[in-house]
Amino acid sequence: MIYDVIIVGSGISAMGASLELTKKKLKVAIVDYGLQPPTHLHVDQNLYDFTESTDAFDLLIGQDFQGLVNLKKNSPYVPARLATPGFSFVTQRTQDLAPVHSKSFSAVQSLAAGGLANAWGAGAYRFLDHDLKGFPFSASELEPFYDELTKEIGISGENDELSRFFGKDSGLQPPLQMSENARGLLAKYRSRKSKFQKLGVTMGRPRFAVLSEATQGRRPLQYQNLEFWQPHLPEIYTPAYTLKKLIAQRLIDYHSGFLVESFESKNTDGSRTVTVTAKDQTGRSQTFAARKLFLAAGTINSAKIVLQSSADFTTSLPLVDNLSIQVPLVLPWRIGRKLERRSFGSAHLNTIMVDDRYSSPLQGSILDLGSPARGEFFDKFPFSARTNLAFIKYVLPAMAVNLFFFPSDIQPPAKLKRNRSGELEIESPPNTIGDDIIAKVIKMNRLLGAWTHAKLVVRVPGGGGIHYAGCLPMTRNSDRPYTCSHDGELFGHPSVYVVDGAGFPQLPAKNHSFTLMANAMRIARVARFE
Amino acid sequence: MNLAAQETFARHVYAAVFGQPANERVIGRYLLASAEIAKTHDPSERAEFETALQTCRNVTDFRSLEFAARVKKRLPLFTKHFRIMVYLGECEPQLRSQLVNNVDRPFVAWWTMTWGILRDFYLLGRGLWLLKKLKENP
């Protein structure tokens, strides 16, 4: 069977493209590895009510001790949420099936149905013109898709002071309930606003693909603090939700269990056909054919498929990521106060910092620490075991972390290439975020009344931002290999489109997932199907 | 370490972390988990860690040695065993009250932490002495 379109992958970009392509009544197939979350873990009550009444070993650690994976020596670091039994499926098998060799870049990939966004922070931000420097299109081309997606997936938030950076959005649901910590910080910000303005800092509410009101049969957020432990909560949008819907409506053919290796584009009898070669779980090759191919396997994997299809072992492609720092904060007025049991385990506030040294604003997200396992913090306090436990009990609820992201152009891109054995190698410069900007971030957080210190700031190593882009960038005149046109079509490979982050030439500091989805819709709309 | 020695060590770690007699379910899981983690460490690290255990006579020694080793960035396996215990203890409903504060009590919080820090001076001194003894008689 020859499909109209084959989409490789089922993550956020794939779903953006699928939504648009299925509207055109085209025959669409998704070829995906498609790992699923564990079915035996299902908690639908508050995390703290559950753990105080039930042995929580399966939820927190897991029978194979998955939750302790980061204690193993010499094993690659897994971000805390992806190490939980509920979310480990997101990165499962990537080490065996899509290995990446790098000493300096931590490449997080996914073979799960729904991709990495199964575990995303759900931040949904529009790119404005100043975020699209280097892109061959302007924000106005994305606007209709952002509006459509806002209705489709449900975005909560507020048109507050940050609209200057996030854009005005008339379709927002009311913002989520703020935590006590965030309320205190926002009050401090409002009372000292002129000082923040001098620093170029604006603070406000994040925008989330999380429902605050019931929509399309999905319930609003229950504030159960389960975001760290339970995948596919219906109130938090993930691509898996759209995938399930499209399969149920029979609008797509979903071929799971396949790892796509390469493609070949051929012109026979005046019509173009793209053949995709994939391996199933037993290692047998299978081919799929279509008139067009949409690559949405995730930046790194899409780049690998393109290099493999070109049998190229020498070219190094650029790979960009958002460098970030983690700034721990202690809010002294909250020490010894009870833990907020009904809470949302993601960011509660955003801070935007405009600094002349950077091409676009820096963005911080302030998160409470109520959700992660307490074991994560045992050796983070500098005291004996019993005293550290007391700090975990009394200080942790008064703590937050300001996760500060930088635009990708603050340092040269990493280099990605395929070696002779077909595996990827990535070379990346170290995180060189300077002490001067860290001092400014510290000053900002102290103005909020928080205790913190530059020595406590963690510079996240390359790749740790898990926002990858830049390998096959869209350019105004795509006139050289490994670049794409304004419409996402890959140079030298007619009918092959790059619809994921690989096509983004650079990244501003804000989360790009919502824009990945909108851009994939844009490409799907402009692709011509004669 | 044979199984009996491992179990004794597990009970000491439990007491050092949670300050109470051990919960059998946690000990059982701990023995499986620690074997899994320990095997990823080099034999020399495991040997050094096991030698260090010889210097401990009671729960206070365990607490002191782990604390001093963490401060001095030595015996990483020791701290890992303590962390495993915290992770596993967190799964037990009866231990949740040691990790989660459900009532507003800033005074109790400040007092507990201040007393803990004062006591830590003694533990650190004792731990450093144990580390020194270990260095002198490896």
Structure overview:
The complex is a heterodimer of chains A (530) and B (138). Chain A is of the alpha/beta class and 530 residues long. In chain A, 23% of the residues lie in helices and 19% in strands. Chain A has helices spanning 12-23, 47-53, 57-60, 94-97, 139-154, 163-166, 180-191, 193-199, 239-248, 299-309, 385-394, 435-447, 513-526, and strands at residues 2-8, 28-32, 100-101, 201-204, 252-256, 259-268, 271-279, 285-295, 317-321, 324-330, 347-353, 362-368, 399-405, 414-418, 424-427, 458-460, 468-469, 496-498. In chain A, helix 1 (12-23) runs parallel beside helix 9 (239-248) and helix 1 (12-23) packs parallel to helix 13. The mean pLDDT of chain B is 90. Chain B is built from 6 helices and no strands. Chain B has helices at 3-18, 24-38, 43-54, 59-71, 76-89, 106-136. The longest helix of chain B has 31 residues, at 106-136. Chains A and B meet through helix 2, helix 3 and helix 11 of A and helix 1, helix 2, helix 4, helix 5 and helix 6 of B.
